[in-house]
Amino acid sequence: MPDLLVNIDVEDIARATAFYEAALGLAVRRRLFGGSVVELEGASSLVYLLEKPASSPASATSTTRRDYRRHWTPVHLDIVVDDLEAAIARAVAAGATQEGETGHAAWGSIAHFTDPFGHGFCLVRFSEQGYGAAP
């Protein structure tokens, strides 16, 4: 099975590190590439914060530019938590913005957020049956 590494582009590495430590309880494992990359541990996969300036090209061949205002992407993080209300309070206190009301279903509950860099993420608390309770 391949390892999964999560990479998150941010425009301010210090601010992003502080946010992900406070919001999700992740911890700095090490700093790389002269401090422009921070490796965080404490989730099921390592999370890498990559400092990339706003408006810089997304890749060497892309005309798309990085934009740290709220944006949509087809890939986002779902963070599974045991205590959803406490996780919501922690994320908001760290600077996340909750988008809409917390949703509830047979499989569990979900709260949608944006981080300070425009990236969407969700906090999820599963019911005992989890997705097995989904229709």
Sheet with the most strands, sense and barrel status:
5 strands, mixed
* Fraction of residues in β-strands: 25-35%
Mean pLDDT, all residues = 95
Record field, number of beta strands: 9
Assign the CATH topology.
2,3-Dihydroxybiphenyl 1,2-Dioxygenase, domain 1
Number of domains: 1
The best one-word shape is globular
- The Cα radius of gyration reads 16 Å
Order of helical and strand elements: EHEEEEHEEEE
Low-confidence stretches: none
The tally of helices reads 2
| CATH architect. name | Roll
CATH superfamily: 2,3-Dihydroxybiphenyl 1,2-Dioxygenase, domain 1
SS content category:
alpha+beta
Percent range for helical residues? 10-25%
Give the CATH level 1 class. Alpha Beta
Intertermini distance? 29 Å
Describe it:
The protein is built from two helices and nine strands. It is globular and about 45 Å long. The chain is 17% helix and 33% strand. The model has no long low-confidence stretch (mean pLDDT 95). It has a single domain (6-54, 67-133), classed as 2,3-Dihydroxybiphenyl 1,2-Dioxygenase, domain 1, CATH 3.10.180.10. The strands form two sheets. Strands 5, 6, 7, 8 and 9 form a five-stranded mixed β-sheet that branches. A four-stranded mixed β-sheet has the order 1-4-3-2, with helices on one face. A hairpin with a 5-residue loop joins strand 8 (108-114) and strand 9 (120-126). By secondary structure, the protein is an alpha+beta fold.
